[in-house]
């Protein structure tokens, strides 16, 4: 069981275990907004509702330069597991400007690619192949990229996730 933690301004901060969320609530550092129906937690002093969404009582400053780290899984997810060249199912990633020519492993230079297009393209640029990209690669935006665990969102979280996107 996981709990969505919202900042005092109601933007998503993190996804934590329900135990951690309960400790925050019991220490009065957070309040429960949504709870899981029919799943109480019993203790020696009574029972508590299992939190699904909590909001912090004090605002936590989040660094402004918070960017999602570049990963193979992230590039595939950003591009919808579709090849940036032909649109087929993608299983690999490709450097638009090849690494041997100075291409970096950044969001702006990496795209999802099918194995066939990746092998055909090889060490060339899309311009040399007369290929066009189906999308403009860039860093992903929105809370579901900077908050880990939100990609497998609980249905109770839905009203709170679009607020930060």
* Overall pLDDT metric: 85
For the largest beta sheet, what order do the strands appear in spatially?
A: 2-1-4-3
Determine the structural class based on helices, strands and strand pairing.
Answer: alpha+beta
Beta fraction: 25-35%
N- and C-termini, Cα separation: 24 Å
Task: State the helicity in percent bands.
Answer: 10-25%
Number of domains: 2
Q: Mind summarizing the main beta sheet?
A: 4 strands, mixed
User: pLDDT below 50 for ≥5 consecutive residues: which ranges?
Assistant: none
Keywords: Endonuclease, Hydrolase, Nuclease
GO molecular function, one term: endonuclease activity
Protein name: 5-methylcytosine-specific restriction endonuclease McrA
Organism: Microbacterium halimionae
Kindly list the characteristics that best describe this protein.
two-stranded antiparallel ribbon, 165 residues, four-stranded mixed beta sheet, 2 domains, DNA Binding (I), subunit A, alpha+beta, elongated
Structure description:
- The chain has 165 residues and is an alpha+beta fold.
- The protein folds into 2 domains: 2-64 and 142-157, no CATH class; 72-129, DNA Binding (I), subunit A (Orthogonal Bundle), CATH 1.10.30.50.
- It is 19% helix and 27% strand.
- Strands 2-1-4-3 form a 4-stranded mixed β-sheet, with helices on one face.
- A hairpin with a 2-residue loop joins strand 3 and strand 4 (46-56).
- It is elongated and about 70 Å long.
- It starts with a strand and ends in a 19-residue tail after the last helix.
- The relative contact order is 0.18.
Gist?
With 165 residues, the chain is α+β, with helices and mostly antiparallel strands. It contains five helices and six strands.
